Amino acid sequence: MAVPPLDDAEVRRIAALAHLALTDDEVQLFGRQLGEILEYVRQIQAEPTDGVIPMSHVGRTASGERADALVPSLDRREALGNAPDAAREAGYFKVPRVIG
């Protein structure tokens, strides 16, 4: 059973909740599109899911994050060596002012 397009009053109610001003043409278009989306959701909900293990997210079973680990890197003098205008004595990069 197909979900009919939303009626104009319902589309206008939803638009008002989102603080959107819609033209009459947009109301017709979005009513049809929302009806199609709801029909697709109905089809998905009709699929049998018995025996499917619930998931918290899709994708890999293991997290893609790595543990923090202290690793050697450039020392401060090397890092500032190629900086055009570094505050070497303080150990900082100087950058142009961007906010008044």
Q: What would CATH call the architecture of the domain at 8-46?
A: Orthogonal Bundle
Task: Characterize the overall form.
Answer: elongated
Report how far apart the termini are.
61 Å
Strand order of the largest sheet: 1-2
What do we call the CATH topology of the domain at 8-46?
Histone, subunit A
Question: Are there runs of 5+ residues with pLDDT below 50, and where?
Answer: none
In DSSP terms (H or I, runs of 4 or more residues), the helix count works out at: 3
Largest sheet: 2 strands, antiparallel
Q: Name the beta content range.
A: under 5%
- Average the pLDDT over all residues and give the rounded result: 86
One letter per element, helices H and strands E, the order comes to HHHEE
Residue share in helices? 25-40%
- CATH class placement of the domain at 8-46: Mainly Alpha
Number of strands: 2
As a whole number of angstroms, the C-alpha radius of gyration is 28 Å
By helix and strand content, what is the structural category?
Answer: mainly alpha
What oligomeric state is this? Answer: single chain
